Amino acid sequence: MGSAHAEIGVLEQARATFGSLKGETIFMNVSKLPCGYCLGDVAAEAKLLELNYLRINTVNPINGYPTSYFWRPGMNTLQEIGLRESFQGIPYTWQMIKQGL
Fold this sequence. Notes:
The chain has 101 residues and is α+β, with helices and mostly antiparallel strands. It contains four helices and four strands; from the N terminus they run αβαβββαα. Helices cover 40% and strands 21% of the residues.
């Protein structure tokens, strides 16, 4: 975990603390887009935690728009949610990201 990105670190700590979060949903707000390695590594951690759903919300540094990635059981990598879908259901989260909360 020493060199892992924050997303991985949080999930590894959750697994070390709780073992399993079977059937749970996790939402994360991060300040940077997940890197290519994290797309697969986060999915692997979500599988080990036995999550039902995981979503990562961030802001695209190129255009400033909210960007979200999700994982569900059976997926091997995070998938980006399209711009239209990313605006649905996270207006409060988006405001929190913009304000740095």
